Amino acid sequence: MAHRSVRRAQGVDAPTRRPPVWVLILATSLGPFALQALVPAMPGLARDFGVSFGVAQMSLTSYLVGMTVGQLAYGPLSDRFGRRPVLLAGLAVFLAGSVCCLLAGDIAPLIAGRALQALGGCAGIVLARAIVRDLYDRERAAQMIAYVTAGMIVAPMIGPVVGGYLYEWFGWPSVFWFILAFGVLVTLACLALLHETHPARGRTETFGQIVRGCGMLLRIRRFRGYSFQVAFTAASFFSFLGGAAAVAVDLFGRSASEYGWWFVLISLSYMTGNFMSARIGRRVGSDRMIAIGTTFSLAAACAMLATLLAGGFTLALFFLLSGAMSVGNGFSMPNGFAGAVSVDPARAGTASGLSGALQMGTGAVAITIIGHSLADSPLPVVLMMLAMSLFAWLAHFHGMRR
Questions:
Q1: Is 134 within 8 Å of 83 (Cβ atoms)?
Q2: Which of 90, 53, 41, 88 minimizes the C-alpha distance to 69?
Q3: pLDDT value of position 210
Q4: Distance, CA of 137 to CA of 135 (rounded, Å)
Q5: Would you say 118 and 67 are in contact if contact means Cβ atoms under 8 Å apart?
Q6: How far apart are CA 8 and CA 120, in angstroms?
Q7: What share of the chain is helix, strand, coil (3-state, %, to 5)?
Q8: Which pLDDT belongs to residue 307?
């Protein structure tokens, strides 16, 4: 009741309707789907354009860079102008980037189009979390973020499968036609069903105030712990994403579509961790769930390196242990996001965008290193996954230290 009185004192009406959860799932899944649908085609994309795998992988790196920049902007903009208009603007940018990719006749404009596509596609990732935080307290927000994240895994899960088959049957432009159609569907759903949820919209902030807000968040130890744990956990996954297709296709001689089916295991594992987190998270506690998840992922990464050094490394084992890491990530990431956006509720949008930017920026660095170090052994991928898992574990306990 007091909360509503505060909103009325600010001259802002309380939200009348919560947006359907499936709309948030669609908006959140668009960016990851577009990211991963092209991954199985990257070894073939290098051959089609006559460039090295490292250059073709720039289409993945530029996507992450675009998501980094976008997530820094969308949070503060949505705090000022509201979640709905900023999300719709981002979706328009995504559609424009998809068209640019379709018209690309060389690798360079395709890389640029991917950056623009990502700049718009990440709006749903940032704003769905902020919308959830607008509507729920921290513990309930962690549960809802876990449900939204688990639901959005369905689209990225089929992304590599769809992308692999589309590339084999019709070539790389068909992948972007599918992405464009998905983007149009999400835009129409948000236009029709997404209502404003931010009670303090209309607040004016200068660019300097936004930068100072980010600086204030980074000075809070718990925010650093939550956000860098999420960033390094995500980087361990992006390390896998950057090298797994090359490991499967180039080192083990499998097809792009077969890689897509193997990737389903990773998505299902992450979904399992998310559902388990949603079911038991409130009872166990968010911080303990993060500790369990980061420890489990680190143990699986250590087992992967030990297996490789012992000479028993196979493609099936690579994906099985990566799946085990994904279960741990499903424990730690939604709780880490909920913690990051709950440290300072007045800056929930800024916190969501900043933590997301750290996630994507760290992932872009990891993928770039993988792309230029991967040759005839999966060792660079395994070492990077292990290092990022270790950093995530350390970041969490740094944030929890009193």
A1: yes
A2: 90
A3: 67
A4: 7
A5: yes
A6: 33
A7: 85, 0, 15
A8: 92
CA 46 from chain center: how many Å?
25
Among 23, 28, 29, residue whose Cα is nearest residue 193 = 23
Sign of CA dihedral 232, 74, 285, 30: negative
- What is the CATH number that goes with domain 16-197+206-400? 1.20.1250.20
CA–CA gap between residue 198 and residue 15 (Å, rounded): 8
CA 140 to mean position of chain CA atoms? 21
Total number of residues shown for the chain: 402
**Residue 41 to residue 55: CA distance in whole angstroms:** 13
User: How far is C-alpha 178 from the geometric centre of its chain's CA atoms?
Assistant: 20
Q: How many other β-carbons are positioned within 10 Å of the β-carbon of residue 1? A: 5
| Cα–Cα distance measured from residue 117 to residue 66, given in angstroms and rounded to the nearest whole number | 8
- How many whole angstroms separate alpha carbon 32 and alpha carbon 64? 10
pLDDT of amino acid 229: 92
Q: What is the pLDDT of residues 190-233, one digit of tens each?
A: 888 777 766 655 554 566 666 777 788 888 888 888 989 999 99
> What's the pLDDT at 287?
85
Q: What percent of the chain has pLDDT over 90?
A: 17
Backbone angles phi, psi at 196, to 5 degrees: -70, 140
Query: DSSP class of residue 220?
Result: S
Taking only the tens place, the pLDDT of each residue in 96-150 is 999 998 888 888 888 889 999 999 988 888 787 777 776 766 556 666 666 676 6
Q: Where are the domains of the chain?
A: 16-197+206-400
DSSP secondary structure, 250-296, as one string: IIS---HHHHHHHHHHHHHHHHHHHHHHHHHHHHH-HHHHHHHHHHH
What does the alpha-carbon distance between residue 333 and residue 281 come to, in Å, rounded to a whole number?
12
